[in-house]
Amino acid sequence: MTATRRLPSGMPRRLILSALLGVAMGVAAWLLGMDAAHTVGLGAAAFGLSSCLSALGEVAEVTWATPPAPSRTGSRRDVAQLGWSLGARGGRVSSEGVRALRSVAERAVALRGLDLEDRSADEQLEELLGRQTLALLRRGSGFEMRTSALAAVLDRLEALIAETASSAPASPTGRASPAPPPNPTIASTPIPTPEEPPRVR
């Protein structure tokens, strides 16, 4: 942390006036018959005295630079940015929100050894996520996710992750290892289809 010192705004003008006063007194003393050495000394003394008197009551302002606030994960700013990134005009979820949700879904199905974009695993993915959720989360599906369906998709993913974590056997290291994909029966909130109007929860 460093201090920045600033001179008062009127100090340069006061110094100039003090110098002019010293010169004027020196010239006046020389015209009155004082020798050159004493004339220069008198002018310098007048300059020094006037500059010191003009500085009385003026204290250089000392300000301490304010350090920037540390960036913390999960702070109020992060939560606000996340909230704004989910909403868009017309009741749709923004593209940033869809990408974040797709990333969560990819990690959730990866715990079952599946790939969200694997077309050959459509049957297993539909059993895990549901047909409409899979259509909303896949790239290039052409379906726009509504904010009314966002909570239902999150509930489905949360239930999938919780069931996977509870059914996965513990590994020798003490961590749960991914379980083989069973035929799950996940109770979840119905998701509005892209064709029908969303239901009010």
Count, helices:
7
Structural class: mainly alpha
Helicity, as a percent range: 40-55%
- Average pLDDT, rounded to a whole number, is 72
Q: Strand portion, in percent?
A: under 5%
Could you tell me how far the N terminus lies from the C terminus, measured between alpha carbons in angstroms?
Answer: 53 Å
Low-confidence stretches: 179-188, 195-201
Strand order across the biggest sheet? 1-2
Shape field: rod-shaped
Main sheet makeup:
2 strands, antiparallel
Order of helices and strands: EHHEHHHHH
Describe this structure in words.
The protein has 201 residues and is mainly alpha-helical. Among the domains are: 13-60; 88-166, no CATH class. The protein contains seven helices and two strands, in the order βααβααααα. The protein has helices at residues 11-31, 36-55, 76-86, 95-110, 122-129, 131-137, 147-167; strands at residues 3-6, 61-64. It has a two-stranded antiparallel ribbon with strand order 1-2. Helix 1 packs antiparallel against helix 2, helix 4 packs parallel to helix 7 (147-167) and helix 5 crosses helix 6. The radius of gyration is 38 Å and the shape is rod-shaped.
Outline:
With 201 residues, the chain is mostly helical.
Secondary structure layout:
Blueprint: E1 3-6, H1 11-31, H2 36-55, E2 61-64, H3 76-86, H4 95-110, H5 122-129, H6 131-137, H7 147-167
Antiparallel strand pairs: 1-2
